Amino acid sequence: MTIHFKDGRNVFLDFREKAPLKSTPTMFQDAKGNLVPGLSTDSYLGVGVPGTVMGLDEALKKYGTLPLQRVIAPAIKLAKQGYVLEQGDVDFLDGSVKDFAKYPNVAAIFLDHGKPFVAGQRLVQPQLAHTLEQIAQGGTDAFYKGPIARKLVAASQANHGILSMQDFADYTVQWDKPVQCDYRGYTIVSAPPPSSGGVTVCMILKLVEPYPLGQWGYGSSKSLHYLVEAERRAFADRNTYLGDPAFVHNPIDQLLSANHLAKVRAGILPDKATPSSEIKGSLGQPEGTHTTHYSVIDKDGNAVAVTYTINYLFGIRQIAGDTGFFLNDEMDDLTGKPGVANGAGLVQGVVNQVEPGKRPLSSMTPTIVLRDGKPFLLTGSPGSATIISTTMESIVNVIDFGMNVQQAIDAPRMHHQWYPDVVYVEPGLLTPQTRQSLESMGYTFKMRKAIGDDEAILIDPRSGLREGASDPRTPAGLAAGY
């Protein structure tokens, strides 16, 4: 959670999950040292200690103006009485129907007598309502020290997991200083480690800052070339150096220093793609797709950008007993084996290896862009590693290419993450001529139906008008005043 207060303060709240105390660096490998497919994404071993309940409650206690019972009441009502599914909701559910059917307690909620829901039907979640009622009455202790934690631990132990009551009792959230950088007269305020988002977005923006992207134009071969090359290098550093600051040193100042950025930028050739095999972490050896985002600004100019996740869509697709909520597979965001791609295709190093109590490195990028110290753009997205590209491109589309906020969100996107050495693009981004020009420079393209799902707010610095934009890639989203 990235927060900007009307008095100018910027703070960040980290409520990322933690690895259980019984975790080991090789827990997702077999006896021969090979990663076991699905172990970190489909089993109870993939479940990290949840942080969302404590995180949201901590923010409410410290800066909120309403009591917990009143804040949580609308969620309890929605769960208890249900809500009518839109087509966008059904589209999300449809992809996991086979997984839901494997577990009777999941099928009872998320299938309609064994069949997929259709738009117009009502989804009712009485067990989730009961869980939320316990939290409303008992606060975070009900979740981390009471009956909810006991049910989670019991289900984990019954399914070869390693969660313990001590894991829940030891869980903490943390207030941090956001990552900040300047870009063309604007201030970018975003997430610090264990999120990689803020550092990586700042690296990309600072690498391309000397180039006249606006003059070259959106979707031009020159703009795309330099953006991809900046992403390639920033992701190489992201995957090599960043991790949980409680375990590793994150060289943020060094990565974002003018001298270092100039050295990295000097390696970008004007007419040729650099193979990722030739790009390594730029500081030498280190010392040691399914997410939720929302942006909110109030009448006084206090701004909040929040990104949180259970990793894969519906996590491990299992629910502990009658708790009513899906369990995460956040452990897949740790490095199951250095040099081997995780579920997001990210190739990471020992800095992010599995260790007890470690928070996994994420790509979450809840971002607030300031102009003259006041909120100008709130942006962020789900999408695993593509979160970084999506958020970065929303900023560039507004600042460099002069788009309004809905145009900036609607515009076709691209993504490059070092490995695999391929540029993912959405339909409509490349003209035939641009694609041919870039392919002749050495780029390989792969089409994706959709990249990211940005939810953004733009505040006109002259009129103060707030413009909200909900990404059409997920039609169940909403931009609204309140």
From TrEMBL:
<feature type="binding site">
    <location>
        <begin position="309"/>
        <end position="311"/>
    </location>
    <ligand>
        <name>L-glutamate</name>
    </ligand>
</feature>
<dbReference type="Pfam" id="PF01019">
    <property type="entry name" value="G_glu_transpept"/>
</dbReference>
<feature type="region of interest" description="Disordered">
    <location>
        <begin position="462"/>
        <end position="482"/>
    </location>
</feature>
<keyword id="KW-0808">Transferase</keyword>
<dbReference type="GO" id="GO:0036374">
    <property type="term" value="F:glutathione hydrolase activity"/>
</dbReference>
<keyword id="KW-0012">Acyltransferase</keyword>
<feature type="binding site">
    <location>
        <begin position="362"/>
        <end position="363"/>
    </location>
    <ligand>
        <name>L-glutamate</name>
    </ligand>
</feature>
<dbReference type="InterPro" id="IPR000101">
    <property type="entry name" value="GGT_peptidase"/>
</dbReference>
<dbReference type="InterPro" id="IPR043138">
    <property type="entry name" value="GGT_lsub"/>
</dbReference>
<keyword id="KW-0378">Hydrolase</keyword>
<protein>
    <recommendedName>
        <fullName>Gamma-glutamyltransferase</fullName>
    </recommendedName>
</protein>
<dbReference type="GO" id="GO:0006751">
    <property type="term" value="P:glutathione catabolic process"/>
</dbReference>
<feature type="active site" description="Nucleophile">
    <location>
        <position position="291"/>
    </location>
</feature>
<feature type="binding site">
    <location>
        <position position="384"/>
    </location>
    <ligand>
        <name>L-glutamate</name>
    </ligand>
</feature>
<feature type="binding site">
    <location>
        <position position="16"/>
    </location>
    <ligand>
        <name>L-glutamate</name>
    </ligand>
</feature>
<keyword id="KW-0865">Zymogen</keyword>
<feature type="binding site">
    <location>
        <position position="333"/>
    </location>
    <ligand>
        <name>L-glutamate</name>
    </ligand>
</feature>
<dbReference type="InterPro" id="IPR051792">
    <property type="entry name" value="GGT_bact"/>
</dbReference>
<comment type="similarity">
    <text>Belongs to the gamma-glutamyltransferase family.</text>
</comment>
<dbReference type="InterPro" id="IPR029055">
    <property type="entry name" value="Ntn_hydrolases_N"/>
</dbReference>
<dbReference type="InterPro" id="IPR055262">
    <property type="entry name" value="GGT_CS"/>
</dbReference>
<dbReference type="InterPro" id="IPR043137">
    <property type="entry name" value="GGT_ssub_C"/>
</dbReference>
<dbReference type="GO" id="GO:0016746">
    <property type="term" value="F:acyltransferase activity"/>
</dbReference>
